[in-house]
Design a protein that fits this description.
49% of the residues lie in helices and 5% in strands. The protein is mainly alpha-helical and 282 residues long.
């Protein structure tokens, strides 16, 4: 992916005092000198154009270049439903410049620690508490706080492994490039396929090891570290059912597949979000 053209190369050459204007019959001796131009009239370039206008055009060209998606930072400021960070979704318009490792970590951190994540994890925790997911946490505000911390840790760890750590190690592009056209099923199939197919920093299509392996690593860390400890009776001495441990291989695989399923749904929303956004604006 070639770098964007240097905007400084698009500006005109500096004015040369003492040369005649090709569009005018005024002799060179009658044209103002550099000192006179600086006092009242701007010096002219070879095309008879004021230098300050040429500089303005150069700045406009630079701004136009930067406005093309993928030409500068390579990320976006978009948000799903005008709230959730969607900074790694960019259009294919313009040059697609590979992200450096530093840029990958920066954009993932920007989304992972966005303030909107606080209420988002709160909603997920409330749903989990209502469903009594992972009963080892129990009920009450203390259990709700544990569930919130768990959801926040799960999301942050997975985002960094899938979007920054492994893409940097395997030189893969963590961004999502929506399909510009096609039928609903064609675009939906394309979006879901991004779970196993991705773009390398070289521009070639590759197996998405960052997503598959990253989700597996985060599921393993989640299951065997801060999730409920091994099985126990919730209330010692009380005749209640035994709560089995969640720290099992089967549960790890279940969490891994669930994470990839949620990611597939999220990517599909990213694919159709521009269409939904246009309807909202109308």
């Amino acid at each position: 992916m070639p770098p964007p053209p240097d905007a400084s190369q698009s500006t005109q050459q500096p004015a040369t005092p003492g040369t005649s204007n090709p569009d005018s019959q005024i002799p060179a001796s009658a044209q103002p000198s550099t000192s006179q131009a600086s006092g009242g009239q701007a010096p002219t370039g070879q095309a008879g154009q004021p230098a300050n206008k040429a500089q303005t055009q150069g700045k406009d060209a630079t701004a136009a270049t930067k406005s093309k998606p993928g030409n500068t930072s390579g990320t976006s400021n978009d948000r799903l439903f005008f709230a959730l960070p969607n900074f790694l979704t960019v259009d294919k318009n313009g040059n697609i410049i590979p992200l450096t490792s530093g840029q990958k970590f920066k954009v993932v951190a920007r989304g992972a620690f966005d303030p909107v994540q606080i209420p988002w994890y709160g909603i997920l925790s409330a749903i989990g508490q209502a469903e009594n997911s992972e009963p080892g946490y129990g009920q009450g505000w203390g259990a709700y706080g544990k569930r919130w911390a768990t959801y926040a840790a799960d999301g942050t760890i997975e985002n960094f492994f899938v979007g920054a750590i492994l893409p940097s190690m395997f030189h893969q592009d963590p961004r999502f490039f929506p399909k510009p056209e096609g039928s609903f099923f064609s675009r939906a199939g394309y979006a879901v396929s991004r779970i196993v197919v991705t773009r390398g920093d070289s521009g070639r299509r590759e197996f998405n090891v960052s997503e598959v392996l990253g989700s597996a690593i985060s599921a393993t860390i989640s299951t065997y570290s801060y999730h409920p400890h091994p099985g126990y009776h919730p209330e010692p001495g009380v005749d209640v059912p035994y709560v089995p441990s969640d720290r099992t291989f089967d549960n790890t695989v279940s969490v891994w597949l669930s994470q990839m399923g949620y990611d597939a749904i999220t990517i599909t929303l990213k694919e159709f979000w521009p269409d939904i956004r246009r309807k909202f604006k109308k």
